[in-house]
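Your task:
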Amino acid sequence: MKKVLFLIHSLGHGGAEKVLVNLVNNMDKTKFDVTVQTLIDSGVNKKYLSPDVRYLPGIREFKGNSKIIGAISPTVLYKFYVREKYDIVVSYLEGTSSRVLSGCMDPQVKKVAWVHIEFDDKRKYTRFFKSEKEVTAFYSNLNKVVCVSDSVRTSLEYCANKHFSNAMVLYNTVESDKVLRLAGEPIEDVHFDEDELKICSVGKITGTKGFDRLARIQKRLLSEKIRSHIYILGVGEDQGKITDYLKKNNLLETYTFLGYRENPYKYVAACDLYVCASHREGFSTAVTEALIVGTPVVSTCCSGAYELLGKNNEYGIVTDNSEEGIYRGIKEIIVSRERLLSYKKMAQQRGTLFSKEKTTKADIPPPSSSPGTPIRSLRNQVFSI
C-alpha cells in the first residue's frame, strides 16, 4: 500500500478545497493510505473528509501567515510540515503548498503538483518562488504535474516557455450523486418570485469572482424593464464594497447575498440561469455543478469554460472576459423562454459527462491526452509513479 500525502494551504470554502475532499474520499483505500496536511488549520471542508482519510492540522490561522510562510526556506518548511515518510507527496493548489514541496530533498519520494489556476502573467507564475528559473525548475523536476484543464496546462507552459513532458490534464472530481440528491431538498428560507428571472452565482466574494460586474449588470437589466434578481452564495472581503454600490443604486431588493450554504445546489437548481463572471478560473467547480443540476450557464472565457460549455456554445454561452461580454451573454440566452429551456436540456446532458463515476475513473479524455491512451488509466497514472 502506498502512502500518499496531500499538502494544501487550508480546507476553506473554495471550489478547489471541495474538489480535494472529493478526490481523497474516492481514492481506493485498499491501495492508498491517504493523508491530508493543511499548512493552516482552518476551513469548513475538513469536516467532509471521510473517516478513512487522515487529517493533519497545520498552524493556527493568523493575519499575514502566507507572507511568513513565503519568507521561510522551503527545506525548513518541508521538514516542519512533513514528519513522516511518504511514497508520494502532492502539492494541491499552486502557492504555499508548492513552496513546501520544493523543499523535499528525498530522491525516493515521488512528487506531484496539482495546478488549478490559469497563469495569465509571470507575476502569478513566480509567486512564492525567488525567480522564474526557480519555479520552472520546480515543475520540471516533479514526477507529475496535474492540470485541471487544458488551458491551465497551456498557460503553465507559456509562462515557463517550455513543454512539460511530465504534465497531464485531469478534470475535477465532483460528487454528482450527492449534488443531485441535495439539489432536490426543499427551500424554506428564500422566497423565489416565479415572475422574476432568477440569476445565481457561487464563490468567495473577492475581486477575482467578478460579483461587482454582476451588480452593475443588474442595474442595466432593471433599466431595460427586465425583472431579474441576482442571488450570490458565498462570503468574502468584497461584500461590503458591493453592498455600498447596491445601496447607492437602489438594488438591495434585487441583489441578494445568501452567505455560505452547506447545500448551495438546491438554490442553483431553483434559478433560471447561472453566471460565472470570474476574471480567472482553473476549471470551475461551481459551473460544473450548475450543469449537473441542469441550470443553464453563461461564463466568461476563463480557463476551462470552452471545455465545459463547448467551443461553439453548444452547452452554454461563453463570453468575452468583460462586463459588456457577460451582459451580452445574459441577453443572448434569455432572448426567449424556449432558448432558456433548450439550454437547460443541454446543461443536463453535459452535466452527465462530469459525474463522479466518470471523473474518478477519468472517463472523460482531456484534449491533451495522447491518442490511444486508455482513458480509464489517466487518473491511475498520477499515483502509479
